[in-house]
Write a sequence for this structure.
C-alpha cells in the first residue's frame, strides 16, 4: 500500500488531520519507493541494488525538515513499513553515531576507518532511514562529512528527518567550517523537502485544553504518592529500594527498581555527567522510567566553568564564564525524552511546573520545543 494511500486512510479514520505539505511529502516518498523497486526489479537474481547503482546515477534520497510535530517521522515510518525491501534499516541518528564510535574502536589501528565503516553499512543496507538528524557534538561533526560521502557514494539511499534545514545543522558549533562539506553532501545526495505546516499535530491530536495528564504530575507535596502509586502498580519481579545500578562502569543511584521499571531523582539522571549512551542503556533494560523533582529550567545567568565539549558547543551570545541556569541539565533531559520517546519507553514524571512552563531559558528554545511536544503526546491515554 502506497504512503499516500496509508496517509489518506489515517485522515479518513480521524487519526490525522489533512495537511497539504504532508500530502506532498507522501507523494515524494512514493516516487522514491517506485524508483527503488524498479531498480531492484532490473537486477538479476544474483545482483544487488548496490551493484546496479555503481553503473548508473545513484537514486537521490530525501531530507525532510520542519518544526516539531509536523509528521516527518510518521511519514518516514509509513514509507519504511511499505517498502518491499529486506536490505533496509531505520535508526535514530544518536544510535547510528553510537554504532559509528563503536566501529571506530573496532577498526582502531587500521587505515581509512571511515571507509571501512561505510563499506560495512553498504554490505548490509541499501536504504537507510535516519530519524532526528541533529548534530551537537564536535566529535560527531568532524566525522560526518567523510563518513556520509563514503556511505552514499557506495549506493546507500538516505531518508532523514530533522527539525532544521541542512544549512542550520551544527549551527554555531565549534570548528563549524569543517562541518560545512556535510551540508554539501546532503544536498548532493538528497532532495530537500520542507514539512512545516502551521500546526503541531501532536498537540492537535492530544486536545491540550481538556487534557488530563496521565504520566506527569505537578506539585511538590504529592509527588511521592503519585510515583509510589505508579511504581507499585507497574513493578514486577525483584524489587529493591535506594540502591544503585551500573551503567557504563559507573554506579547510578536509584530510589526504587524492579525487573521492568526504575525510579530516579532528576538530578541523578541529568545533573551529573551523563550522555545519550546512558539513556540508551536504560531503554534497553526497562519498559518504564519514573523521575522525581524535574525542575523548571530557568534562564537566569549563573557563573560557570566550561569544561569539555558539552559545556562549550553552541554558546552563541553567552558570555564566557557564564551559563544559563540548568541548561546542561535541560540538554540531558531533552536527550532522555528523545530516547525514551523513540524507544516507546513509558516516562512518568513529577515536576514543579507544567510541561509548557518547564523551559524558561533562551539557548535551547529550539531543541526544547521538540521535547515539550513529545511530553504532551506521551500524556495521551492511547500512548503505549
Amino acid at each position: 500500500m502506497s504512503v499516500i494511500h496509508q496517509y489518506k486512510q489515517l485522515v479518513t479514520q480521524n487519526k490525522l488531520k489533512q495537511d497539504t505539505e504532508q500530502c506532498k511529502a507522501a507523494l515524494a516518498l512514493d516516487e522514491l519507493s517506485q524508483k527503488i523497486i524498479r531498480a531492484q526489479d532490473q537486477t538479476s537474481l544474483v545482483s544487488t541494488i548496490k551493484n546496479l547503482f555503481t553503473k548508473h546515477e545513484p537514486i537521490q534520497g530525501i531530507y525532510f525538515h520542519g518544526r516539531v510535530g509536523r509528521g516527518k517521522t510518521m511519514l518516514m515510518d509509513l514509507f519504511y513499513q511499505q517498502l518491499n525491501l529486506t536490505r533496509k534499516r531505520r535508526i535514530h541518528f544518536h544510535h547510528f553515531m553510537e554504532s559509528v564510535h563503536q566501529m571506530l574502536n573496532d577498526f582502531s589501528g587500521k587505515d581509512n576507518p571511515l571507509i571501512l565503516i561505510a563499506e560495512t553499512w553498504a554490505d548490509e543496507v541499501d536504504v537507510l532511514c535516519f530519524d532526528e538528524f541533529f548534530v551537537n557534538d564536535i566529535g560527531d561533526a568532524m566525522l560526518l562529512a567523510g563518513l556520509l560521502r563514503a556511505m552514499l557514494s557506495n549506493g546507500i539511499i538516505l531518508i532523514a528527518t530533522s527539525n532544521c534545514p541542512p544549512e542550520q545543522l551544527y549551527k554555531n558549533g565549534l570548528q563549524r567550517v569543517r562541518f560545512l562539506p556535510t551540508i554539501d553532501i546532503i544536498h548532493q545526495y538528497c532532495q530537500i523537502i520542507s514539512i512545516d505546516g502551521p500546526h503541531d499535530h501532536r498537540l492537535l491530536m492530544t486536545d491540550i485544553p481538556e487534557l488530563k495528564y496521565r504520566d506527569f504530575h505537578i506539585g511538590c507535596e504529592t509527588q511521592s504518592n503519585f510515583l509510589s502509586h505508579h511504581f507499585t502498580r507497574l513493578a514486577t519481579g525483584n524489587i529493591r529500594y535506594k540502591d544503585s545500578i551500573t551503567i557504563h562502569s559507573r554506579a547510578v543511584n536509584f530510589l526504587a527498581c524492579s525487573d521492568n521499571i526504575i525510579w530516579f531523582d532528576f538530578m541523578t539522571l541529568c545533573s551529573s555527567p551523563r550522555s545519550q549512551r546512558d539513556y540508551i542503556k536504560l531503554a534497553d533494560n526497562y519498559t518504564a522510567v519514573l523521575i522525581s523533582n524535574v525542575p523548571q529550567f530557568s534562564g537566569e545567568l549563573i557563573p560557570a566553568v566550561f569544561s569539555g565539549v558539552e559545556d562549550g558547543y553552541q554558546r552563541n551570545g553567552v558570555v564566557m564564564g557564564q551559563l544559563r541556569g540548568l541548561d546542561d541539565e535541560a540538554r540531558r533531559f531533552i536527550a532522555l525524552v528523545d530516547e525514551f520517546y523513540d524507544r516507546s519507553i513509558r516516562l512518568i514524571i513529577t515536576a514543579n511546573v507544567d510541561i509548557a512552563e518547564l523551559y524558561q531559558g533562551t539557548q535551547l528554545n529550539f531543541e526544547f520545543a521538540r521535547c515539550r511536544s513529545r511530553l504532551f503526546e506521551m500524556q495521551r491515554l492511547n500512548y503505549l
The two ends are 25 Å apart (CA to CA). The first helix runs from residue 3 to 12.
